[in-house]
Amino acid sequence: MNLPKLNPDQIKKLSLSVIGFVFLLYVYFTFFLGPLNKSHQATEAAIVDRQRKIDTSKGEMSKAANLERQAKDATSRFSALKALSPEGAPIAWFPPRIKTLFADQKIDKAVARLESATTPKEAELAGWTKYNWLIELPQTDYASLGQAVAALENTEPLLCITKLSIHPVPDQPQFQQAAIAASTVIEKQ
């Protein structure tokens, strides 16, 4: 290939053009493309951060919705449990209720006595009282007793049987004597 000979003036122009082109490239990459890349990286980092915050917020929103549902359920259960406690002192209505429950199960002569009443230590239960009862059944059979205990636990949701004692009746082997120690929590009136 034959290249034409360049005179010194053309060489100066060509070298100034090459220097100008290199300077132009330098200016383009330093002042235009560099800040653009930094801005792009910062925007991508901001997008990732926002997406993380959105995901966290979605999790918090589902937790809040679940907590709200649990609060509604707890409020309705609390109202239902409150409705189970009639007006007046428990000593006036609890023993007859127990006697009726056992009479419905064909166990006569059920006697419920109050052993003690205490206030729970938990601050959340300051408006409630724990009553310890002794329920005596002087004559029953195992099948009736089992059904009666199941009925007692199913109809009195705040009642907890703490002790069950069963002894044979000495002169009637087909019958047993039973004593049930139970505790219940009742709202103060």
Total DSSP E strands: 4
* Helix/strand/pairing category: alpha+beta
Question: How confident overall, as mean pLDDT?
Answer: 86
Please name the CATH topology of the largest domain. Alpha-Beta Plaits
Largest sheet: 4 strands, antiparallel
Percent of sequence in beta strands: 25-35%
Q: Helical stretch count?
A: 3
Estimate the global geometry from the Cα principal axes.
rod-shaped
Describe the structure.
There is one protein chain. The chain is an alpha+beta fold and 189 residues long. It has two domains: 7-83; 90-187, 2-Layer Sandwich (Alpha-Beta Plaits). It has helices at 8-83, 90-104, 142-155, and strands spanning 111-118, 128-140, 159-169, 172-187. A four-stranded antiparallel sheet has the order 1-2-4-3. The longest helix is centred in the first third of the chain and has 76 residues, at 8-83.
